[in-house]
Amino acid sequence: MRSYRRHRLLVPVLLCALTVLAARPTAAPGEPGSGTGTGADQGLSAEVARLYEEAAVATQQYEAGREEAEKERAEAQRTEALLDAQRRHIAALHEDLGRIARAQYRSSGGLPVAAHMILADSPDGLMRGQHAFSQAHLAVNNAISKNWRAEARLAADEARAADRWQALEKRNLQLAGLKADIEQKLETARSRLQGEADVAVAAGACRGAVRLDQPETGFTDGEWVAPVETYELSASYGSGGARWSSRHTGQDFAVPIGTPVRAVGAGRVVKVSCGGAFGMEIVLKHAGGYYTQYAHLASLAVDQGEHVSPGQWIGQSGTTGNSTGPHLHFEARVTAETGSAVNPVSWLAARGVSL
Fold this sequence. Notes:
The protein has helices spanning 2-23, 39-107, 113-118, 123-203, 344-349, and strands at residues 232-233, 251-254, 260-262, 267-273, 280-286, 291-300, 307-308, 313-317, 328-333, 341-342. By secondary structure, the protein is of the alpha+beta class. α2 packs antiparallel against α4.
């Protein structure tokens, strides 16, 4: 009888427990605090990062090939000058042969040197004839030998120059094709990445951190770096214009969509947001009470509360929010909020980073 009552009491308890579990809130996939982004986000961001690196390597190889082409062009010009000198030398040798033949004809009165030797009327005449014959023979042989060697060098130099040019043209065509193929794939991936970022910003919900393979930086916690590795500076701190309601509060770095964005120094992520004028943005807090902001991103690689190291990839640049083109908006602040910015160029320069 007691066993039956225990079973009757157990059923309501289990139903209540299931109801509580079902009503328990769960973090939406990709929102701050929910972990990493979806597999699709992860793959696309990683693909952009990988293609970005491949494009950088291909560009370096192409530029190295172009520099080598310039060196080869200069070498070819020097070779051509040497070839011209050799051609002039060969022409001079031909002139020498003609001069020797004419001199022989004049000295022998139209008769061969050997005939003069036979007709010599004294031993001295015979010796003079023999010496003249030997000298003429030696001169002719030397001239012919020099002519042959010069022509052989000329042919060899021409063949080497032609081989170098052919190999160089083939290599440069391959490098140009490789570079163009990677850049086309990268442009397509960048467009998709920016499209997904625009959707997230319009919804005002970040998809969560996309974990990128971090590069080997070698930086220590006390070091400072520029927020992007390769860039062109565009709008500067304090500049004005129709694009802003007040003076520009940061330094813009003109970089393509998908460019890895780096933490300028060791710190902690105090803000990750999507939406508003800055689009996707990250704010870091550093030692000494300063903060840095990274805005208009296309992807996020960190979550709020994380600690970061100098040079760590924290996201990828884009053109989300109030942006007229792909760039990174970077600020140095005395608080985490807008309106407390200081000149970021001077701030970084004080920490050994010259932009």
